[in-house]
């Protein structure tokens, strides 16, 4: 009935279509704003409130019935009727995709658990006393399913980090939280029960090659099914896995450079990987061809790709920067590795700490985890600026740190050290501490610094970061700072003789 009465041919001028656009905008704004405000008044969170507003903007059958009544009663002209029908169709069809984008299933589960008081807003499970309860946490699990961006120039660094993760006789890193009360009364401690079993490391390598408009690229695309079996880099990757008793697989995709980030994210979703590992590009280019040093300095394609992927990563992500002066190019060395992890707090650092404990399952690995704290006087000045929420988040981070420290298995306590760095200028202090620790054991295969990407630290250390940046004679490019975060940028600028692993937590574990 409505379709028969609709005459789009009457919208034959620009002013008519302007009325259509105006009607759609007013319909969206009126319903979304009104529904959002009403939902906020009912104590809903902002994202949930916007979803209510979008759902209210759906017109559907009721509006079409009212419009037909108005047309039959000669209240509406055919042109006006057509404008309102188009508006009703647009707002109705837009409701589903907007609702899915604003209120996906993972967010619904997270919000429901948060309202029940089972987790904090970062997704970490809380016990009855507000402490982190490791035994119930879904995110306290090992990253045993890895997707790696395979590049020819980065094979040595890829093999090095995989050998640490999967090599040797792996110990259980985390058990249930030990009862301090039982320890005090009985005078002894029981070995904590592991929270998860020993799962094999599964690694999938994805090599992306640029798809150009040239005929040769088109021909490669038509033979893509045979490329993974014939590609020498993927074959070498698989052979490495077989030699180290790892479950490895590989694939090659020919895509335009502009779609590298999306392709990697789609592959991670398809494989349901827990972490994506991206090696740093020594050339700074997405291309694997060798370029001159001058061209290296001008290339920003790889950092742009990293930023784009990290902003949309569907799982945990890590960027590995190899120390070419020390980190081994072979995995056959019997020497040990030393891992340092500065813990500033936040979702990224919590994921980084968990990953360090996973690395520490390798008996060749020792680790030092440093809790970074502001001097008490500085903390009092910060509190005066009304940082109640920040204080609450800091307390949650402290609880998490303490819980992870208390839940170490007895086998790891001799190799994993927890320490605290308290200073008025924590970044200066941590740089000095790291510089004093790296390179202390020349017989080791190398030092590895694991830290969170931690975008947003500039607000916490807004007075200190500019001073450190000005002090460095070898400042890294600003695109590196945007890609890897402020702390990683400072480590790179100081040219510390250690490898870096910069970790970003899964976006659903972060503030939304």
Word description of this protein:
This protein has 512 residues and is of the alpha/beta class. The protein contains 23 helices and ten strands. The chain has helices at residues 2-5, 14-41, 46-56, 60-72, 78-102, 105-115, 155-166, 180-186, 215-222, 227-230, 232-243, 260-271, 293-298, 301-312, 347-359, 376-383, 388-406, 410-413, 426-437, 457-460, 465-471, 478-484, 486-493; strands at 145-149, 202-210, 247-255, 275-279, 316-321, 337-343, 365-374, 416-423, 446-452, 499-504. It has a ten-stranded mixed beta sheet, with helices on both faces. The protein is elongated. The protein starts with a helix and ends in an 8-residue tail after the last strand.
The rounded Rg comes to 28 Å
Total strand count, please?
10
pLDDT < 50 runs, ≥5 residues:
128-140, 174-189, 193-197, 291-298, 327-334, 382-387
Distance between the termini: 44 Å
Helix content: 40-55%
Q: What order do the strands of the largest sheet run in, or round the barrel if closed?
A: 3-2-1-4-5-10-9-6-7-8
The mean pLDDT is: 75
Beta-strand level of the residues, as a percent range?
A: 5-15%
- Main sheet attributes: strand count, strand direction, barrel closure: 10 strands, mixed
DSSP helix count? 23
What is the subunit arrangement here?
single chain
> What would the principal axes of the Cα set say about the shape?
elongated
Structural class of the secondary structure composition? Answer: alpha/beta
